[in-house]
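Structure ticket #2291
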Amino acid sequence: MNARMHLSGAHPSQQPDEGERLAVAVEVLGLLADRTRLALLRRLGEGEADVTTLTGATDATRTSVSQHLARLRLAGLVTTRKEGRRVVYGLRHGHLRRLVDEALSVADHQIGHLPPHD
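Resolution: structure written out below.
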């Protein structure tokens, strides 16, 4: 069984072994290691949005944004709901928002040559 299968189906009562936890974490970080997906998750950290809004938050085409969102949805990182004919996307949980925020903070420190801190 691979890590992808565990991203969307894990239950809180299950205690995965350390190897499984690391495999799933690598999968999540791998999904974040794409500029468009990171921008989408950053925007979704501000609140729910549809594809049109999310396309405006990236430098990608609508088709590309839709494909990235499908990948994030299949991995269980984003949720969807229908609002009329529109599909509205949201983050599955706050851990992703905080993870994206921390990654961007690390980038700010490296770009700005800021001193490290805890």
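Closing remark: Residues 80 and 89 are 5 Å apart (CA to CA).
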